[in-house]
């Protein structure tokens, strides 16, 4: 996820003009990805940059979960978008049910 977001950020920096404000969009792999301060705005947007298999993963605005995890909801990454320019997004993992 971090690497995909780095690619999204690079696209935002290289856009003309740069897309580093509180809102914007960039194109990644033919997908329009919403960005905040250059990073993916939501986990859904981040997933567009990762080209996830939707039969393996369930994606919501804030989480990417393993769809067939033994314990639903406890095998996931919760995504927290950037809150300001220069502030990286957060990733919180839950692995108890993997």
Question: Could you explain how this protein is built, in words?
Answer:
The longest helix is centred in the N-terminal third of the chain and has 13 residues, at 2-14. The strands form two sheets. Strands 4-5-6-7 form a four-stranded antiparallel sheet, with helices on one face. Helix 1 packs across helix 2 (43-50). The protein has 98 residues and is of the alpha+beta class. Strand 4 (57-59) and strand 5 form a beta hairpin. It has one domain. The protein starts with a helix and ends with a strand. It contains two helices and seven strands. The mean pLDDT is 94. The protein has helices at residues 2-14, 43-50; strands at 24-28, 31-36, 39-40, 57-59, 63-66, 76-80, 90-94. 31% of the residues are buried. 21% of the residues lie in helices and 31% in strands.
Question: What are the salient characteristics of this protein?
Answer:
single chain; 98 residues; alpha+beta; 4-stranded antiparallel β-sheet; 3-stranded antiparallel β-sheet; 2 helices
Which helices and strands occur, and which strands form pairs?
Layout: H1 2-14, E1 24-28, E2 31-36, E3 39-40, H2 43-50, E4 57-59, E5 63-66, E6 76-80, E7 90-94
Antiparallel strand pairs: 1-2, 2-3, 4-5, 5-6, 6-7
Helix pairs in contact: 1-2
Which term fits the overall shape? elongated
Helix-residue proportion: 10-25%
Mean pLDDT figure: 94
Number of domains: 1
Give the N-terminus to C-terminus distance in angstroms: 18 Å
Short note summarizing the structure:
This protein is α+β, with helices and mostly antiparallel strands.
